Amino acid sequence: MLPLNLVAICFFFSFLFFIPVINSDDDVFLMYQLAGGFGELPDNLLHYDHILHPWLGAILAALFRWQPNFNWYTGFFILCQYISWVMIARVLLHLFNRRSGLAVFFLLFLLAGVNGLQSLNLTSTTWVFSISIVISWIYFPRFVIIYFFLLLIAGSIRLQIPLIVTGLFISVQWNLKKISWWKSLFPLLAICISFFLLNLVQKKYYSKNIHEWDKSESLRQDLFYAFNRPKDMDKPDSLIFQNATEKAFYERLFLFDEHFPGRKRLAEISRASVRRRDLSQKDDLGALYWTWVAWRLYLLYIMIAIILALHQRVLFKWVKKIWFPLSGSIAFYFFLFLFFKFTDAFFMGLILIMAVQMVLFWPVSFQKKSLIPAFLFLLPIAWSLNRDIHIDRQNREYNRILKCGLRELAASKQYLFIATGDAIPIKYFRAIDLPAKNSLENFIYKERLLTRSYFNSLRKYGLSGNFKKGITAPVLRFAGPYFPELLNWAGADSLVFSATDSSFHCLEIRKLLVK
Asked: Whole-prediction pTM value?
């Protein structure tokens, strides 16, 4: 009962002092699709490969149909995070004595738990869920069947992360020798095969139920890699883009027409503009510097752990065990940094992995009569709380901006708004906000453009999928900055942009940020 009550208290105070928000465009799209927030019935056709499997989406959509006055999407993630921290607390109380276990748990929760609740999204939830399952499997292997099904649920939320976590903890299992290899080999193979089959079913389901889903998913994946890998800043635009209009559409992600610039042309642009990181480049060194700045708090935790190890005379024994699993996590971090996008959620996930690895290899509990651990822990606790307060202030401000935009959209149902960029921050929804009461049926933003899920909204306003023909329709309003290239491409004399219409105050984020 202690882990259940302990985590319940931590969650209670987290929700009492901080507001949990969804801070991801993808998550807001998924939540609205599941909840019917786009003016349609809740459904599980979520378009994304590797993310939120249709079987899980079907359950959440059914719950939204049954009771739309509860946010089942955020409720599910909070439940997963609660179960995760209960399992982590159980392992820590098994590993240390009660006093030391509680101290380590509170530090880990301040390090990653509060942040995970402040920034609710499927990625951060899957990280902590997967980590808790794997370490519970290592220390309590008799419940292997339960852990297997929990990992399937984690893989159904976001497929890649349980595989990453399992791989990064193989060296931990090897050193701790809690499970013999021959006993763990079959479950690991079963998990890999099950994940492959899960993804195969997901692709088949979407291909059958979403027209040309494979093409739209291919387009979205191409854009993901193009926009989240370093650009070749030294290459002239004339070697990448055919004209200024093509460049403007590409940089704004304003790609509602698959024939402009076209999937083939888009691939050519990506190949021409994307480069691999080179740490001899000033821009890449700058990115690495800001990464180090972001690591300052976590480096402080490591320094304190080293001081404690020296104090207890276990430094050499601890470092000898921890260097191999820790180097694997750091190597994976640099792999992502060099070749892929490295989001805050991935960053926090790897930080939590490294913190848990360091704790699992700690040789002894803290000395009961020593005040040094308590004194040293005051600094990271204060720093962590200061960081959480700063994040909470940012969350509240962006939630205010979002609510302002939603009110203006609700008051302008006679118009269909199309975002020409990140005009409204379609994220920072509070966990208790309801899609059904914050409808986006008259707003099309980039996630809906990229997933080709906006056609029903067009038909409701008497428009077809050919934007070029209907772009001057009186019902259309463009939410965001003035976009002259759009006029040139459409051959129109004028379009209504929220940035140039004084009657709109909340549909242009730049105006709000100035206030």
From this structure: 0.89
